[in-house]
Amino acid sequence: MSNYNIAIDGPAGAGKSTIAKSVAKKLGFIYVDTGAMYRAMALYFLRMGIDSNDQQRIEEACKDVNVTIEYRNNEQIVLLNGENVNGLIRTEEVGNMASASSVYKAVRLKLVELQRELAKNENVIMDGREIGTFVLPNADLKIYLTASSRERARRRWSELKERGIDADIDEIEEDIITRDNRDMNREFAPLKKADDAILIDSSDLTVDQVIDKIVKYHNKNIKNKEA
Ligand code: DC
Q1: Residue 136 in contact with ligand 1 by CB distance below 6 A
Q2: What mean pLDDT value characterizes the chain?
Q3: Per residue in 105-132, pLDDT tens?
Q4: What is the DSSP string of 136-184?
Q5: Given 41, 75, 110, 205, which residue has the most CB atoms within 10 angstroms?
Q6: Are 24 and 31 spatial neighbours (Cβ–Cβ below 8 Å)?
Q7: Tell me, what CATH number does 87's domain have?
Q8: Last residue of a domain, one of 104, 121, 138
Q9: Shared domain check, 212 and 162
C-alpha cells in the first residue's frame, strides 16, 4: 500500500486533532495538523501588528513568511521562518486570527502545496476544513466530523475548567458559532462536507467510539480496494 491518505474535516472543536492523532498512531500514519500551519501564519501577522481586515498588508506579509514542518518523536513541529512556534499558537487570539486571515487566497495558497507534498510522500491523516474538498480531493477516505455547537462549547469549557480557568459557556459557544460562520462562508475553499465524505456526528459519542468507527471505515475501505 503506498500513500494512503485520510482527510478529516469539520468545524472548530469537533475533536478532529485528538481523534486524527490517535488514528494515525493506530495505523502508523503521519498526522498532519493543517490548522497549526494557519495558526503559525496568524502568529506572524499578529507579531507584525497587522489588522485581520487589512487584506493588502496580509498579502504583502505572505511574501516574508515561510512555514515548514518537521517531525520530532512523531510530533509535528511547526516552524515559522525557522522558529519552533508549537508552544505559541494554541491561544484564542491566534485561533481567531487564523480563522480571519485564512479567508485570503494568498494565505491559503502559501500552505496548500506544502500539504499536498506531504500527502504525496507519506501515508497521512490530515485534518482541516477543506482537505477532502480542495487539498486532497482524491483522498482514499474522507471523514466529516462534527458535533453541535453546544457540545463543542461544553467540551472546551471543561478543558478550560480542568486547567483552572473559569469561562462562560455561552460566550464560548458564541465564539464557536462566529468561527463556524466565517469558515463555512468564505469565498475560497470554505469548510464544507465533501460529497463522498462520511459524516460522523460526535455529539453523543466518546472519543474512543469515534476512533473505532474511523478505523473500521478504513479497514473496510482497504478490503474494498483489494477486492
Ligand atoms: O483547526 P484550528 O482551530 O487549529 O484552525 C484554526 C483556523 O485556521 C480555523 O478557524 C480556520 C483555519 N483553517 C483553515 O482555514 N483551513 C484548514 N485546513 C485548517 C485551519
Answers
A1: no
A2: 95
A3: 999 999 999 999 999 999 999 999 999 9
A4: -TT-SEEEEEE--HHHHHHHHHHHHHHTT----HHHHHHHHHHHHHHHH
A5: 41
A6: yes
A7: 3.40.50.300
A8: 121
A9: yes
